[in-house]
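Bug: token stream looks shifted between consecutive jobs. Job 1:
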Amino acid sequence: MAQISINIKEGTLKREEIIVGIDLGTTNSLIAIIDKETGTPSALRDADKFAIVPSIIHFADDGTITVGRSAREHLITDPEHTIFSVKRLMGKSYKDIAAYQHTFGYKIIDDDAERLVKIKVREKYYSPIELSALILKELKLRAERLLQCAITKAVITVPAYFNDAQRQATRDAGKLAGLDVLRIINEPTAASLAYGLGNQDKSSHTIAVYDLGGGTFDISILRITSSENSGDFFEVLSTNGDTFLGGDDIDRAIMDHWLQTQHVDGNLLSATVRQDLRLTAETAKKHLGSHGEFTGNVDKIQCDLTIAELETLITPLLQKTIQCCERALFDANLNVNDIDTVVMVGGSTRTPFIKKSVSAFFNKPVHDEVDPDEVVALGAAVQADILAGNQKDMLLLDITPLSLGIETMGGLMDVIIPRNTKIPTAAGRQYTTSLDGQANLKISVFQGERDLVRDNRKLAEFILSNIPAMPAGLPKIEIVFQINADGILQVRAKELRSGVEQKIEVTPQYGLTEEEMAAMLLDSIKNAKTDMAERAIVEARVEAQNMIDTCERFIEKNNQYLNEQEIAGTKSLIDNLRNTLNSDDKDVIHQQIEILNEFTRPFAERLMDMAISQAMKGKTI
């Protein structure tokens, strides 16, 4: 029976709202819905029957922004202004991706900070959130054109191994694109929903979902319990993976193979030639899926490859994925014989050698009947249908992929919520003060599996203040972590004797609060460009002032180690940057920050080397 909504106040009929499922991928993105006639998920296709939207953005000279297949054409002709694989930058600082920066054709800014990276395009600066929002907006427009109605609500998928910062970034990108993100769902879980594995029989079975996409890999172990009375119960037992491992790395291995065998220095190649080589490597990989060898040529570089050579190049990367599978099985307290079904997800699993190797590891045939490029989006559509209340016979329990905790004395990580805990969840622990009369307690929140917080990722920091003066050890401070269904964390701290309390929703340093995001979305209806520009200017001014203060302190402290040219040049550039603080153009401010940063970097590194040499003098290693 069709569902019809009635606006009681106005006495009008309201068309049933459609919730879409979105796979925001490294290489390709898709949007899917549940077909109301058949009740099955289907990917939305354009007039040319293409469901896939390449996750590529091109910025033209005249300010035109294109997304998808039309943008892909510019990867070779205009690589510096064509953005790809932005998902690899989600939730990352420059330090996270420094070793890989040369693999991108576009400019990623090194601001020597823990903030989210910025990408420079035609004198403008973008965050991965803004760029991902452009892709999501294109998907939203595609759906609205095809379905002839407004699309405002979505379920968006992420790799199971995405950390809190990356999930927040994805969530914010959705909101910036004008979407109410009802749920962030793990990609392997979505794949299981797409296969309808819970409906195959009325018993319990265990599934391994092997998901190798363009930029990320993860393996999830799920148990699905089905019964006549309660429907399907999806339970994620464990997950493991690598957010920087995928088809892009296979392409890069092929590129490096060609360059090494012909003794060509890749650093000397132009961005255009590098992009041409990368795309040729991708073509070779796909060609060898059904042929014995590949022959090509890029700028006098011979690009030949056989199946045997491809398999040799893939093996080290494949072995990393198998090690993740072993860890996931160990965490679930299972072995390969306990797995009933193996599902292949992601375009990279089309490679026959990968399918054969995964089948050999699990000692059973793998399922790849559903298009591996579409399966995640289809599953997201199923989850959207569940949230819409159309499928009441499914219950989905997900897990948090990494441990969450706080820093304690000595820089130790004290885990409050262990990895692989089912979500939504909450957990708490009591602490106390270490000094007599201590009035404030700094709480630093970290995510990771290492014993020392320096080896984990810092998510947030806040102060529990106004603790009544008491002897050390007497206050009872309860710290509670609460994770919602999206995998987003809220932290609450309370001194139990006095009732003093402080709580925050954990967002990374780049993050926007719910109130800021809501205001931004409301204003975007009236004047999106003005709203975004104003916020960006404020952030740029704050960053510029921090840079000025840092450089002035540096000169004052190290005056005797700098020559007159270095001091004068730095002061001049500080003045230039200070003069931009009242500018209404964020890009002018960012440009001067970058110029000052580049000018001071050489002697800052020199003084660092001097300090290290002095510290190590007379010592042996």
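Job 2, same session, no restart:
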Amino acid sequence: MTAIFGTAASALGVNSPDTSGKREAAPAPLIPLKDFFRNPVAAGYQVSPGGDYISWMAPWENRLNVFVQPVDGGKALRLTSATKRNVAGYFWAAKDQIVYLQDDGGDENFHLFAVNADGSGKKDLTPFPGVRVGVVDDLRDDEDHILIGMNKRDARVFDVYRLNTRTGEMRMEAENPGSVSSWITDHDGRVRAAVQTDGVNSELLYRATEKEPFRKTLVTDFRESVDPIFFTFDNKELYASSNLGRDKAAIVRLDPETGRELEVVFEHPEVDVGHLLGSEKRKVITAATFTRDKREYHFFDDWRRKLQENLEKKLPGMEVSLVSSDRDETRFIVRSQSDRTRGASWFYDAKTDELRKLADVSPWLDEKQMAPMKPVRITARDGLVLPAYLTLPPGVEPKNLPAVLYVHGGPWVRDSWGFDGSAQFLANRGYAVLQVNYRGSTGYGRAFWEKGFKQWGKAMQDDLTDAAKWLVDQGIADPKRIAIYGGSYGGYAALAGMAFTPDVYAAGISFVGPSNLFTLLETVPPYWEPMRKMNYEMIGDPEKEKDLLRAASPLFSADKIKAPLLIAQGANDPRVKKAESDQIVSALKKRGVDVPYIVKDNEGHGFSNEENRLYFYRAVEKFLARHLGGRAEPDGEKISELDEVKN
């Protein structure tokens, strides 16, 4: 789940009612629930810096662990032995060494571990309780060190340390003065820039050498973002994503000495541009990526453009991306996927033009049985146009269907085109699924984002209500069979929809969703403290705007909830504490509202472990079938009669 502080039917390409007397197409076969949510065969492929090995993550003891194999074949070797939680992520620290991250039960206090490619030398590099670690720079030209960010000295902030991944020795490279939110290294691995915030204003800090103190060179309101991406290849200037003086973020070249914008590298009139790709070997920028309905590229480099065209020709109809390469940039890992398949990972050798499939992610899912995800546009009550995605059950006339409004979390992220396991599962069960980029979603410019400020439960929620109405007006949804479902902010929106518009939804599902904005803002992790003022600006100030936050908190309108509600929560969630779910469950139970409550003691902000995902979605399947009339596996686990499940 995403982090919380993550026209007519015919015009949509939807089948119109059949009046020709022809026989209707049959619904798609009922696909086993497990097939949508089980662990992948393999994922997260990377090629080692020297191009000698391929690594990936695959299930072992029902948990995702890291494996490695010589690039030209041979026996695969498992490098990790996680049994409680999946390995959260990994990368190559050297030609012969991998480092990986793991937390404890979803608490997000990640430790960094190292292991050699032959399985030897495993060690916990950061064996500090209650401390969170992230990677600042993998130092591609240093076989022994990486730069990490760690809140060991002060739980509220992250200092930069140079860590020897062979010995575990470390030394501080940059001490956080108290509000630095991100650090930027140059191409020689030197910490040369940073962004700090007091929650309202952001400041760019810069130093020409590591011996000099940082100084402020640019100050902006948080609404105006200037986000450094990486240094120019001569280490003198910065590429950044900036909306300073414009609505849509553009890629710019910045003078870090003065904070002055030198050149607009690329901008798009419709959406933000925030991603820039480059070649470390050839010292050139290669492409910018942006997303309208789908991801698109703007190329600066002919070699990279031709490579993309060649791969897309070899993998027609797929969204194709390069996800890893060796240092020589001749051996690559390629990912292919679409809205109807999780796709596959491939090995590509640019010297020989060989493209070799490594593994399908979920080969048990038949692309032909999946539903297309169609971009649509919805006009809100105040005229704002909301980009959205509609997924309809295959083989079923899109008329008077049960429907699920599936709300993204964040809220300051966006939905995008591509394979969504939850949407495909719900469509297979017979539901029309609508995903809306409501106001406040990012990627559509500053004005669209700012329209969501202090609109939790208000205009942001109105957008979702209008989307539900749109489904009815199109004739797609039965107005008496619409559910609202989401995780994190999406879980909040589900609670808000049930409480503030109780006649719109026949059921709701809240997954790690906050119910009380006062307690949400009081209990954020300590390392979010620098963003507290910004959250007050965007959500509301609990001291100065008590009435606003009380009105927007579903807990205080729990007496208005009348439709059935399913709630799920990770016991160790550091972002949305378990108390957020406990308190609204308690309020509803006192009134006799049907509120099955799933709590998993070994989970945090979302369910990582496969058995917990399957349990949750089995509950979703039964809950929606009972209240909306969709399909369900006949031998599924009997969840609907349970009041509370703890595991």
